[in-house]
Amino acid sequence: MPSDRFEQAHGAPAPRTTVLGHPKGELWLLLAGLPAAGLLAGLALPRLARWASGSPVLPWRDGVAFVGRLDAPWQTGLVMAAGLVAGLVLAFTAIAEAMRLELTDERVRIEQHDTVLVLERADVSAVFRDGGHLVFLGADSGELARGEHGAPAAALADAFRAHGYPWRDADPHAALFHRWIPGTPGLPAEIHALLKARRTALKRSAGRDARDLAEAVREAGFVVRDEKGEQYWRPLAGGGGQ
Protein backbone atom coordinates (compact mmCIF):
# COMPACT_ATOMS: atom_id res chain seq x y z
CA MET A 1 0.00 0.00 0.00
CA PRO A 2 1.18 3.56 -0.57
CA SER A 3 1.46 4.13 3.17
CA ASP A 4 4.21 1.53 3.20
CA ARG A 5 6.20 3.60 0.70
CA PHE A 6 5.98 7.08 2.09
CA GLU A 7 4.28 8.97 4.85
CA GLN A 8 3.64 12.62 5.50
CA ALA A 9 4.73 14.08 8.80
CA HIS A 10 1.89 15.30 11.01
CA GLY A 11 1.88 18.65 12.72
CA ALA A 12 2.12 22.16 11.32
CA PRO A 13 0.96 22.32 7.69
CA ALA A 14 4.00 24.36 6.67
CA PRO A 15 6.42 23.13 5.65
CA ARG A 16 4.69 19.93 4.52
CA THR A 17 7.20 17.06 4.59
CA THR A 18 7.12 13.69 2.88
CA VAL A 19 9.54 10.97 3.98
CA LEU A 20 10.58 8.37 1.40
CA GLY A 21 12.54 5.50 2.89
CA HIS A 22 12.79 1.76 2.40
CA PRO A 23 9.43 0.06 1.75
CA LYS A 24 8.57 -2.09 4.78
CA GLY A 25 8.45 -5.27 2.69
CA GLU A 26 11.94 -4.63 1.34
CA LEU A 27 13.28 -3.94 4.83
CA TRP A 28 11.91 -7.26 6.08
CA LEU A 29 13.41 -9.02 3.07
CA LEU A 30 16.82 -7.48 3.69
CA LEU A 31 16.94 -7.85 7.47
CA ALA A 32 15.40 -11.31 7.67
CA GLY A 33 15.92 -12.84 4.23
CA LEU A 34 19.63 -12.21 3.74
CA PRO A 35 20.72 -13.47 7.20
CA ALA A 36 18.48 -16.55 6.76
CA ALA A 37 20.03 -17.17 3.36
CA GLY A 38 23.47 -16.85 4.94
CA LEU A 39 22.59 -19.46 7.58
CA LEU A 40 21.33 -21.90 4.95
CA ALA A 41 24.40 -21.31 2.80
CA GLY A 42 26.64 -22.01 5.80
CA LEU A 43 24.76 -25.24 6.48
CA ALA A 44 24.99 -26.39 2.87
CA LEU A 45 28.53 -25.24 2.10
CA PRO A 46 30.48 -28.22 3.55
CA ARG A 47 28.13 -30.66 1.80
CA LEU A 48 28.50 -28.83 -1.49
CA ALA A 49 32.28 -28.76 -1.07
CA ARG A 50 32.39 -32.53 -0.48
CA TRP A 51 30.23 -33.08 -3.56
CA ALA A 52 32.34 -30.76 -5.72
CA SER A 53 35.68 -32.15 -4.55
CA GLY A 54 35.31 -35.10 -6.91
CA SER A 55 35.43 -32.87 -10.00
CA PRO A 56 38.63 -33.33 -12.04
CA VAL A 57 38.64 -29.67 -13.14
CA LEU A 58 37.95 -28.11 -9.76
CA PRO A 59 39.75 -24.79 -9.11
CA TRP A 60 41.08 -24.00 -5.61
CA ARG A 61 40.99 -27.73 -4.83
CA ASP A 62 42.81 -27.44 -1.50
CA GLY A 63 40.43 -24.77 -0.20
CA VAL A 64 37.34 -26.69 -1.31
CA ALA A 65 38.67 -29.90 0.25
CA PHE A 66 39.30 -28.05 3.53
CA VAL A 67 35.72 -26.76 3.64
CA GLY A 68 34.44 -30.23 2.83
CA ARG A 69 36.17 -31.61 5.93
CA LEU A 70 34.24 -29.25 8.24
CA ASP A 71 31.68 -31.85 9.24
CA ALA A 72 31.87 -31.73 13.06
CA PRO A 73 28.82 -30.06 14.66
CA TRP A 74 30.86 -27.19 16.10
CA GLN A 75 32.54 -26.62 12.74
CA THR A 76 29.18 -26.55 10.97
CA GLY A 77 27.98 -24.07 13.58
CA LEU A 78 30.94 -21.79 12.89
CA VAL A 79 30.33 -21.88 9.14
CA MET A 80 26.63 -21.11 9.70
CA ALA A 81 27.55 -18.22 12.02
CA ALA A 82 29.88 -16.85 9.34
CA GLY A 83 27.03 -17.08 6.83
CA LEU A 84 24.72 -15.25 9.24
CA VAL A 85 27.24 -12.44 9.75
CA ALA A 86 27.80 -12.16 5.99
CA GLY A 87 24.03 -11.89 5.44
CA LEU A 88 23.72 -9.15 8.07
CA VAL A 89 26.63 -7.23 6.56
CA LEU A 90 25.03 -7.41 3.11
CA ALA A 91 21.66 -6.30 4.50
CA PHE A 92 23.01 -3.28 6.36
CA THR A 93 25.24 -2.34 3.40
CA ALA A 94 22.20 -2.37 1.10
CA ILE A 95 20.23 -0.21 3.54
CA ALA A 96 23.10 2.26 3.93
CA GLU A 97 23.58 2.61 0.17
CA ALA A 98 19.88 3.18 -0.56
CA MET A 99 18.50 6.70 -0.57
CA ARG A 100 16.35 8.10 2.22
CA LEU A 101 14.55 11.28 1.23
CA GLU A 102 12.76 14.10 3.00
CA LEU A 103 10.74 16.22 0.57
CA THR A 104 9.31 19.69 1.07
CA ASP A 105 8.08 22.19 -1.50
CA GLU A 106 11.39 24.08 -1.18
CA ARG A 107 14.06 21.37 -1.01
CA VAL A 108 14.89 17.66 -0.79
CA ARG A 109 17.21 16.19 1.83
CA ILE A 110 19.02 13.03 0.65
CA GLU A 111 20.74 10.61 3.03
CA GLN A 112 22.99 8.09 1.29
CA HIS A 113 26.45 6.54 1.76
CA ASP A 114 26.63 8.06 5.29
CA THR A 115 26.36 11.53 3.78
CA VAL A 116 23.61 14.15 3.57
CA LEU A 117 22.92 16.22 0.46
CA VAL A 118 20.33 19.01 0.31
CA LEU A 119 19.03 20.10 -3.09
CA GLU A 120 16.95 23.21 -3.57
CA ARG A 121 13.77 22.62 -5.56
CA ALA A 122 14.72 25.46 -7.93
CA ASP A 123 18.00 23.67 -8.81
CA VAL A 124 16.31 20.41 -9.89
CA SER A 125 15.36 20.20 -13.58
CA ALA A 126 14.15 16.57 -13.61
CA VAL A 127 13.61 13.57 -11.34
CA PHE A 128 13.12 10.06 -12.76
CA ARG A 129 13.73 6.36 -12.25
CA ASP A 130 16.59 4.73 -14.14
CA GLY A 131 16.17 1.03 -13.48
CA GLY A 132 16.38 0.67 -9.70
CA HIS A 133 17.99 4.10 -9.31
CA LEU A 134 16.42 7.45 -8.57
CA VAL A 135 18.12 10.28 -10.46
CA PHE A 136 18.09 14.06 -9.94
CA LEU A 137 19.24 16.33 -12.77
CA GLY A 138 20.36 19.94 -12.43
CA ALA A 139 19.81 22.96 -14.68
CA ASP A 140 22.78 21.95 -16.88
CA SER A 141 21.29 18.41 -17.27
CA GLY A 142 24.08 16.95 -15.12
CA GLU A 143 23.33 14.47 -12.36
CA LEU A 144 22.99 16.08 -8.95
CA ALA A 145 22.35 12.75 -7.22
CA ARG A 146 21.76 9.10 -8.09
CA GLY A 147 21.03 6.13 -5.87
CA GLU A 148 18.97 3.03 -5.27
CA HIS A 149 15.42 3.39 -3.99
CA GLY A 150 12.99 0.51 -3.60
CA ALA A 151 9.68 2.40 -3.74
CA PRO A 152 7.54 1.84 -6.87
CA ALA A 153 7.79 4.51 -9.55
CA ALA A 154 4.10 5.41 -9.08
CA ALA A 155 4.60 6.15 -5.37
CA LEU A 156 7.69 8.23 -6.08
CA ALA A 157 5.94 10.13 -8.86
CA ASP A 158 2.96 10.96 -6.61
CA ALA A 159 5.25 12.24 -3.85
CA PHE A 160 7.45 14.41 -6.05
CA ARG A 161 4.57 15.84 -8.06
CA ALA A 162 2.69 16.67 -4.86
CA HIS A 163 5.61 18.93 -3.91
CA GLY A 164 5.96 20.49 -7.35
CA TYR A 165 9.09 18.68 -8.55
CA PRO A 166 9.51 18.01 -12.30
CA TRP A 167 8.96 14.24 -12.27
CA ARG A 168 9.67 12.50 -15.58
CA ASP A 169 8.68 8.98 -16.57
CA ALA A 170 12.12 8.47 -18.16
CA ASP A 171 15.41 10.28 -18.68
CA PRO A 172 14.56 13.28 -20.87
CA HIS A 173 18.08 13.15 -22.35
CA ALA A 174 18.23 9.38 -22.98
CA ALA A 175 18.51 9.75 -26.76
CA LEU A 176 21.77 11.70 -26.42
CA PHE A 177 23.78 8.89 -24.80
CA HIS A 178 26.48 7.03 -26.71
CA ARG A 179 28.23 3.82 -25.67
CA TRP A 180 31.79 4.56 -24.69
CA ILE A 181 34.40 2.96 -26.94
CA PRO A 182 38.03 3.78 -26.14
CA GLY A 183 39.40 6.19 -28.72
CA THR A 184 35.99 7.31 -30.00
CA PRO A 185 36.46 10.51 -32.06
CA GLY A 186 34.79 13.62 -30.64
CA LEU A 187 35.60 12.90 -26.99
CA PRO A 188 38.50 14.78 -25.38
CA ALA A 189 41.46 12.70 -24.27
CA GLU A 190 40.73 13.76 -20.69
CA ILE A 191 37.28 12.13 -20.81
CA HIS A 192 38.69 8.94 -22.32
CA ALA A 193 41.22 8.77 -19.46
CA LEU A 194 38.53 9.33 -16.83
CA LEU A 195 36.21 6.71 -18.33
CA LYS A 196 39.07 4.22 -18.59
CA ALA A 197 39.91 4.76 -14.91
CA ARG A 198 36.21 4.47 -14.02
CA ARG A 199 35.91 1.19 -15.91
CA THR A 200 38.77 -0.16 -13.79
CA ALA A 201 37.08 1.10 -10.61
CA LEU A 202 33.80 -0.60 -11.57
CA LYS A 203 35.60 -3.89 -12.21
CA ARG A 204 37.13 -3.62 -8.72
CA SER A 205 33.69 -2.81 -7.26
CA ALA A 206 35.19 0.44 -5.96
CA GLY A 207 31.90 2.34 -5.78
CA ARG A 208 33.29 5.49 -4.16
CA ASP A 209 36.05 5.81 -6.79
CA ALA A 210 33.51 5.28 -9.58
CA ARG A 211 31.27 8.02 -8.16
CA ASP A 212 34.21 10.41 -7.79
CA LEU A 213 35.26 9.77 -11.38
CA ALA A 214 31.69 10.31 -12.60
CA GLU A 215 31.75 13.69 -10.85
CA ALA A 216 35.06 14.50 -12.55
CA VAL A 217 33.48 13.64 -15.91
CA ARG A 218 30.63 16.02 -15.14
CA GLU A 219 33.00 18.81 -14.18
CA ALA A 220 34.60 18.34 -17.61
CA GLY A 221 31.23 18.84 -19.33
CA PHE A 222 29.86 15.31 -19.77
CA VAL A 223 27.52 12.83 -18.10
CA VAL A 224 28.24 9.11 -17.68
CA ARG A 225 25.79 6.32 -16.85
CA ASP A 226 26.08 2.52 -16.67
CA GLU A 227 23.98 -0.03 -18.50
CA LYS A 228 24.59 -3.79 -18.67
CA GLY A 229 28.23 -3.43 -17.72
CA GLU A 230 28.94 -0.70 -20.28
CA GLN A 231 29.53 3.03 -19.80
CA TYR A 232 27.45 5.51 -21.79
CA TRP A 233 28.19 9.22 -22.15
CA ARG A 234 26.55 12.40 -23.35
CA PRO A 235 27.47 16.10 -23.22
CA LEU A 236 25.87 18.40 -20.68
CA ALA A 237 23.22 20.77 -22.01
CA GLY A 238 25.22 23.37 -23.88
CA GLY A 239 28.40 21.26 -23.50
CA GLY A 240 30.74 20.12 -26.22
CA GLY A 241 31.07 16.83 -28.02
CA GLN A 242 28.63 14.67 -29.95
Structure, described:
There is one protein chain. The N terminus is likely disordered. The strands form 3 sheets. The protein has a 5-stranded antiparallel β-sheet. A 3-stranded antiparallel β-sheet has the order 6-7-8, covered by helices on one side. A 3-stranded antiparallel β-sheet has the order 9-11-10. It folds into 3 domains: 85 residues, PH-domain like (Roll), CATH 2.30.29; 74 residues; 62 residues, no CATH class. A hairpin with a 5-residue loop joins strand 7 and strand 8. Helix 2 crosses helix 3, helix 2 runs antiparallel to helix 4 and helix 6 runs antiparallel to helix 7. The protein has 242 residues and is of the alpha+beta class. The protein contains 7 helices and 11 strands.
Provide the residue-averaged pLDDT: 80
**Form type:** flat
List unreliable stretches of 5+ residues.
1-12
Strand content: 15-25%
The string of secondary-structure elements, in order, is HEEHHHEEEEEEHEHHEE
CATH architecture classification name of the largest domain = Roll
Structurally, the number of domains stands at 3
Strand order of the largest sheet: 1-2-3-4-5
How far is the first residue's CA from the last residue's CA? Answer: 44 Å
- Helix-strand category: alpha+beta
Q: Work out the number of β strands.
A: 11
CATH fold naming of the largest domain: PH-domain like
Could you tell me the radius of gyration in angstroms? 23 Å
Number of helices: 7
Described by strand count, sense and barrel closure, the largest sheet is: 5 strands, antiparallel
The CATH C-level name of the largest domain is Mainly Beta
